[in-house]
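Task: encode each sequence below as structure tokens.

Item 1
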Amino acid sequence: MKTLYLVLTTIGLCFALNFAYAQTPAGKVGGIVLDNAKHPVEGATVLLVTAKDSTTVKTMLANADGRFAFVNLKDGDYCIKVTYVGYQNYRGASFHVAQQPVNLPAIIIAPTSKALKQVDVEAQKAFVEQKIDRTVVNVGASISSTGANALEVLEKVPGITVDDNGTISLKGKSGVMVMIDDRPTYLSGDDLANYLRAMPASQLDQIELMSNPPAKYDASGNAGVINIKTKKSKIKGFNGSVSASVGDAKYWRTLESMNLNYHVNKVNLFASIGYGIQNGYRRLNVTRTYLDANGNPTSLYTEEAFFNPTTYNPSLKLGMDYYLSPKTTLGFVLTGTQSLGHNYNPVNSTIKDNTGKLDSIITSNNNNQSNNKSGGINLNYSHQFDSLGKALTIDVDYLKYDNNHDQTFFNNTYNAAGVLGSVQNIIDNTPTNINIYAAKTDYTQPLRGKAKLAFGLKTSYVNTDNAANYFDVVNNISTIDYNNTNRFLYKEHINAAYVSFNQDFKRLSVQAGLRAENTNVNGHQLGNAQRPDSSFAQHYTGLFPTAYVLYKLDTAGVNALKLDYGRRIDRPRYQDLNPFVTILDKYSQFSGNPFLRPQYSSYFEMVYTYKSVITLTAEYNPITDYQVEVDNAAPGGIFTATTGNLGRRDHWGITANIALNPAKWWIFNFYTELMHNWYNGKIANLTLNNSNTYYYFNWTNQFNFSNSWSAELTSFYVSPTHDAQFTHRFREQTNIGLQKKILKNKLAIKLSVRDVFRDNFGAGNITNIPGVLATYHNDNANRSVTLGATYSFGSNKNIPKKRQTGSADSEADRVGN
């Protein structure tokens, strides 16, 4: 069953903006609300009233740190009142506000003497929330994600697409920087995809999408930033949850996870433990038609390859926060993951002449044993100088990544009569070691007139060691293959600094920032008995400005218009610079490119919002030195893939998001985009000048039938796309889920079906290859049925919210496979 939709949105925006600047009072007052144990009270209602007659002037809720601040106040005498459920009402002494900020002493509220009966209140967040600098997708309650992994959750998020190889794109642009809790993912490329496949969806809470991140973030990632936020407990005492699921696609798989939190006095301990067994499946069909100088077929190569990877994926996250005072926190986070597995990869190939007559048959039995490990430690410090927002944070990170692959390639070639002609046996060992050191500090200084200044520094150092040891085996005797054996050492040092300023007026908000990054690179390819040493060095500095303007078209802010601009860089992944060859099969291989240059992009965006219901966006994103995969036919019919720089890629697009609540029991979200990409330039002796327009939509329905029954129906569709040499068929997927809560809502049992109609598979053509026509078809057995359960336990008292930490975001995101 196919679900083809064509959504064409015509947007006409005519706005006449007249803004008159008026001087506003500059009085400020700020403070913090604490309980008897000196813990911040998030969500407490704080009222600013006149001292004379208690008339309410302003009202706000205390933030996650218990802090509040009132600005733009007239001179006069005021008092603070605080109310919070389960606590006694508070009224403080009067104070005088003039031109100088007033910093109140800590407000301590006491619990009421009468114990209140427990009242369970459940409020479901909107699936998509729009903020000034990002889009937030709340995936924590997604039923159809039961038993899924993080990568599968991402492909259902509005604006994100994931291709057959696990490459993640945001609004049609690859090169996105993926972070977890504002910290590194440790991986990129195939290893990032494998890491996300090993992360249970039950650990995910929110996904933040930033098309144009502010200057505080690293300038890496032309498509912006995807920040995956995991679930974090906000309550005192001991609490947590445990999840388990079992599912079946082509083969069985299981995912288990446990989240624990213990908070007592000044110490908060937390841990996340996960374990999964993945039994994957993939069938790849490839055809290559070879042509003579006149374009006539000379031979036909067909290949059918099967992949059956089995991986065991334990993961662990441990951390502690120590509250030296209500204003100062010390903490550390330890993380570790492992992906231990094997992949049986049989390949059957045929070669025919131009008449279709069989020439030869190749059977291959390929095996891969892998052991990928990553670990890291983060040390963090934060201090709030006052209640008005003056703050300092420091992060220090060390990340280590070890990857080891042992592979065997055994190829038998038979003639048309089935007689064995030749035997090829290759074994290899490819260890990779990467060490990343990073440190950063950020400082925020409030200014008069509702303004804020922020600046920071960062330094990072990366050291990689890659080896490829290839051997030809004849009569059980191994001989070193010096053509492919290699060792590559790479070092990179980046220093960065940024400054950012923002100010809010009555209906206008402005923010501007500038980031400078200095990059120093050294690469060394060690020689062997047949090849000499070679090396290269690069040194460059770039400036990366950002700017945002938000204007409320009415005093209530129901209609708003935002304009923003940013410039970004994508440095090559470490492995893409590695010049040695990686063998994929007898006729396919990948080669790195030590001369690969960084790509630079600019981003222009205009956004119109109506409440939280409608969001319309128009964007333009030109990229120079665009990094893209290039496929070529080498002598002997071997297909070689590498990464090169194409002169330019221009991206235009419009998007629309509609969030509705048609009934009390029904939440509906619809997202669509219409995008156009144009490619122009020369790459690896190929001249490209082509373009492609495609559309995409994603819709989500969440149904709450009663206090214990709920369901979900989601779907997405991507029309045919084009990326430099590659054309891709349309892709679509529909998911359903059903949930039942029991044991006073502590146990949730979920049943989900992913890709109900089995429509999500990849196929297309590889174009612009001299003398070759190529096609591919990928079947990943995407449809799956999963049964899972989640049990929550523990106390229910509020604790302070943890600051997001990490300083090695972009460096870790470039670790390759």
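Item 2
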Amino acid sequence: MMKKGLLTLIVLVFTSSWAFSQQNAAEWQYVSYPELPFVLDHIHLDLTLESSESLIEGVGSYFITSRKPGLAEVVFNSADMDIQSITFEGNETEYRISSDSLIIQLPDTLQRGNTIEMVISWKSSSSYGIIQDVYGNMWTSLNPKARHHWLPVPDHPEVATTMDASINIPANQEMVFNGILVGDELVSTDKKVLEWSSKIPASVTGLSLAMGDFIRSNARSGIKEVSVYASEKALLPEIRDDLLSIAVSSMKEYERKLSFEFPYESLNIVVLPDNHWEEIQTGAGIIYLYQNLGSLATQLRRGIAEQWFGNFHRYLNAPDNKYEFLKVMLTGTSNIQQLKNPDELQSIYRWNLWEKGFDVLEDDHLKNIIRESLPQLVHQYEGVTDWNEYADFWYDKSGSFWEVLPEFELPESHTEEKYVYGVEYIYDEMASALTLVFEAKGEPIESLANVDVTEFGFTDTSHTEITFTGALDSVEVEISSGIDYLTLKQAYDTDLDIRFEEEKPFMFWIRQLRDPSSKNRIQAAEALQNFTDNPDLQLAIRDVLQDEDDANVRAAMFETLSVLTKDASGTEETFLGNLNSENLSIQLSGLRALANYPKNENVAFQVRNTLLRAERDTVFNAALDTYRQIASVNDLLTAAERLGQNEQGDKKAIKILKVAAPGDTTNTSMMMADRYALGAYPYSIRKQALALLIEFEENEDYWQQTLKILQEDRDPRIRHLSLDAVKYVSLSDRTELLENRAKEELDPRVLNKLKELQQ
């Protein structure tokens, strides 16, 4: 039985997956009280986006009001970008860059309450701030402190502003920004300009844009516009409609629960294939749904909750366990699925924990206090909000200060224990006597177990009930002289879960092949694999096959037939014929059987064709398992090359490489893996290829060159994973590589791993 797991906040934080140990929380956490002697009233942006170069070129007009007398300079944040000029009323001013601070000299001191316009021109293709995937999508990161890698701005949750933007993009693309789309003008055959506006102040940490081959679908929730942007190939129309419906209903539900309307002018939902290691999935009025994280509906409900608790209320230390708790509190746990987490994102990990454990949180008083307080919390706080402010509020209500979340226990596993019993049939045909011997294969049953016995005779069927118990028990069964066979079934009136492994006489199994129940016929077909020495078995199986209509039963019979025939000449034709069946079970049984013909060229040819043409993963996997048994490593690699010529075959080619690599003495598999790891392929393929290289490629010269390339990759996950290969580099070269990369790396998770490897 599974023991209960007591989970506290401390346990949740310190016993998570490896991703948290790699994440430098201090690098991502914002300071509590930044130096902000000015107010950013408004931003007007003129942007040009070039996805082919992952480039944002911009001119920003910033309207700033001094909060103190004699303001002589302002400090923005800027990193990994080219600042081209900073001007006031057309005149350039002096500026300097220190670390990630852009220090700008004002032309004249600005008195308290006075406003000035500042214009900054820049270019950025930052791999930390701008994300580009292999599908042609380009978007900006919402991870903490990522904003100032594509936009010069005071990058802190305390800074909120209105904005409008004029964005120049390719005419065949669509793009998304915060606020409302107010203009769409084609300015040439290949360019258009989109106008966006946000009259409601939004935190600069919630700013984001996305561009791609999107189709836009709209709906309304009251006066709020809701839009879904996704590639036409990515979402079926009915799924797109479902997302719009869920968004509208969730917004209304949360507005009702909170007595507070949706905090932004519109909701823009962007559907993308891959999360790209993005810990933060929502900005101000914008939500990113990633198909590799699982249920889009769950992501959407969570993202809408985050519009209030994460964007309207903003946090200095997101992602954080406590704030995921608030999202679960608002969304509830009905109609919610656990999200997938292939990259071990902490935000998703913590969401899944609370979604799983929320209903068993023992402190109902706490849950009720928090649930009832959510409307008041939303009304009372705006902008940067600290957990202690929440805790103070709850203290006034309850007299208890919840600095950390309370303990909760996950429910015990209620999987019923399965009892396994071998059942030996001692049959005296002359005396028409049958004794069943029940022997426990594991834990025995201590109480009486009831078993329904059905006797099938030539003209009649009869039922009786017997009981047994303990580790070893024998029971005499009354049978007629005309018995054909007998079946056992656990009685319906018992709560026990019992599996019987029966040893029946040969003829009982043969006759059971014509049982009315397909389940019993499959049992008989499988059991007859233990009678391969009986010369009558193959004929009996083929005779029954002529009348069998159930595809699953036929598949089981073919499995038994393959055990009987093995590699006998001519017998392969039966199983080759199965490859053309429309039934999956029969196809699979045929493929498995053909593994018995390793020297048959026709079999190898047909299995290879199935491997190359398989549309179902189950068929491909079965074909690969058979082909690796009957073909050489070179044959496998040739098949992988053939699949790699097809855009849809890369995932299958990687599977073949995994099988071929351990036995490959030609290094062909490593050359193919290199192509996939360094090429423009989806991350899921690159990750597997890189893992193969790290496991099987030990050449130091190769890794000295390849690591430099991989460490400059735009995908931080590739940079992180490739560091596992430094073990193949000499100590001196390794030290130099790690030191140089640590100076240039911007992602705190990769930087943390670099520092650990330097120790």
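Check on item 2: The chain has a mean pLDDT of 91. The chain is about 35% helix and 30% strand.
End of task.
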